[in-house]
Amino acid sequence: MAYVGIFMAAFTFLLLPKIWQVLKISLWRPYALSRSFRKQGVKGPSYSLFSGSLHEMKRLKMDAAQIVMDTTSNDITPRVLPQYHKWCPLYGETILYWFGTRPVVSISDPDLAKQILSNKFGFYVKPKCSPAIQALTGNGVALVNGGEWARRRRIVNPAFSMDKLKVMVKRMATCTVAMLEAWKDEANAAMDQCKTIEMNGEFRKLTAEIIAYTAFGSSYSQGKEAFEAQVELQHYCAASLLDVLIPGSHYLPTPSNLQLWKLDRRIRNSLRDIIKSRLKPKNLDCNYGDDLLGLIMSASENSDIKEGPKLNMDEIVEECKTFFFAGHETSSNLLTWTVFLLSLHQDWQTRLREEVLKECGLEIPDSDMLARLRLVNMVLLEALRLYCPVVEMFREASKDMKLGNMMIPKDAWVSIPLAKIHRSKEYWGEDANEFNPIRFKNGISKAANHPNAFLAFGIGPRTCVGQNFAMLEAKAVLAMVLQRFCFSLSSEYKHAPVDNLALQPQYGLPIVVKPLLAQNI
Ligand code: HEM
């Protein structure tokens, strides 16, 4: 009898509160929040126990992945953001849905997006990612929040200043020449001097080379090894994005966790070795080199940061991973989609080639030449608008927040679907889905009838730290391609943009390249 009493007492005091907690999170809160949002005029798909809207989203994504679009259509939302394509006609532009038990409010109004992304007090924070995503992207400046973020951003910023980037253009060009030489050899070996090349794969390799070279300079081959493991890791993460997260499951030695831990160890060890080799013999003037790693190590030593210590070894490792992840997928996809658009719009390809030959001749472009490429810049921005590598951004409300006419409760997420905002007719006009680089002739803020309708690099304090790097890299690579080749879309191409952590062509981008005979470079 006594045991039963003890059991009942334990049940009452230990288990009941837990059960109540689970019921509150998985039943009561979704019910109460759905009601409260409905009163504020915000509707959405109904909540399913534990999985929220995840199963529906997964199903819609799987169905969308079967669609092959018309090659000339730039309307990628049904394929890339199928959930909004289905839900918006039913519930309106602002939608409440559920990542498991977590409420997410999707915002498509640039004014509200600006309020979220530019919040002065940092009340909308970056949401905590799954351990797999953290291992992949690095728990660096892109993921941390608050004072920790400010400390890291201050250390990282100077490495991306324009004068430092100018030096890096040479390294970007060196990597590009090697790739283009290989293309030329392959094309010249063909009877008709034409060669079909899968551009997405080529640009991924190239941007990985560039980031490894600009990040690690002389330690480049060691850095490449680490980054190759990171690419492998990406396959595990992309597959698990819409899985329902079971608390604690990342500690279990499942086959995929074991593989993930192994890759993570390999990445860390390689990066630690590189950093250690820079530290000895100890550099007295704290000059660790002019590559990204060296600049960050120097900035960390020299900075007059009051709050908190300078970056330690593990933190530098995380920043290196962040640069690689943030810097190579996005940039390669910008190049991929720009080449795709220029293959379809041969008139623009000719115009850009004329501009490049006028400003750079047949020389390897330097940063001053690149700065004069106005049309190239406009085309890159238009490619970023139509095929933005990051299709959606998320933030978490760190306290109850008033947003427009809505109350966003603490812990709720807000999503900003860039790909949708970028093709809204309300902001971009009737030709929102057309390729029209001229719209950027007076700069980004005047391209649409709302100054914040272009969000490819984010806005506010957490805007992309590598955007100048990315634009210089894209201009340099594109200019060098245009100097040497004309190109057109292969008949094998299937138009199927897909969001695998960045916007990619699902079946690759086969492009027919032909060396320009007049340009013997
Ligand atoms: C076309 C190329 C690129 C695009 C479209 C892009 C896009 C973005 C976007 C949208 C954000 C903001 C994300 C958010 O607020 O949730 C971001 C942040 C960031 N990007 Fe990029 N990015 C590109 C290239 C790069 C490169 C080349 C690097 C570094 C080498 C880089 C490093 C970062 C970092 C570190 C952050 C986090 C900044 C912070 O939170 O303070 N990005 N990027």
Strand content: 5-15%
In angstroms, what separates the terminal alpha carbons? 92 Å
Q: By CATH's scheme, which homologous superfamily applies?
A: Cytochrome P450
Count of structural domains: 1
CATH architecture: Orthogonal Bundle
Q: Give the averaged pLDDT, no decimals.
A: 90
Q: What's the oligomerization state?
A: single chain
Strand arrangement in the largest pleated sheet: 1-2-8-5-3
Low-confidence sequence ranges = none
Ligands bound to this protein structure: protoporphyrin IX containing FE
What is the helix tally?
A: 19
Number of E-state strands? 12
Which term fits the overall shape?
A: globular
**Gyration radius from CA atoms, angstroms:** 25 Å
Largest sheet features: 5 strands, mixed
CATH topology: Cytochrome p450
Structural class of the helices, strands and pairings?
alpha+beta
Membrane topology: Single-pass membrane protein
Family: Belongs to the cytochrome P450 family.
Protein name: Cytochrome P450
Binding site for heme: 464
Description of the structure:
- By secondary structure, the protein is an alpha+beta fold.
- The protein has one domain (1-515): Cytochrome p450.
- It is built from 19 helices and 12 strands.
- The protein has helices spanning 2-39, 54-64, 77-80, 82-91, 110-117, 131-137, 146-156, 162-189, 199-216, 220-239, 255-279, 292-302, 313-344, 346-360, 367-371, 374-386, 418-421, 425-428, 467-484, and strands at 95-99, 102-106, 124-125, 195-198, 393-397, 401-403, 406-408, 413-416, 485-489, 497-499, 503-505, 510-515.
- The strands form 4 sheets. A 5-stranded mixed β-sheet has the order 1-2-8-5-3. A 3-stranded antiparallel β-sheet has the order 4-12-9.
- Helix 8 runs antiparallel to helix 9 (199-216), helix 9 runs antiparallel to helix 13 and helix 14 runs antiparallel to helix 16 (374-386).
- The mean pLDDT is 90.
- The site of protoporphyrin IX containing FE has 22 residues, from helix 13 and helix 19.
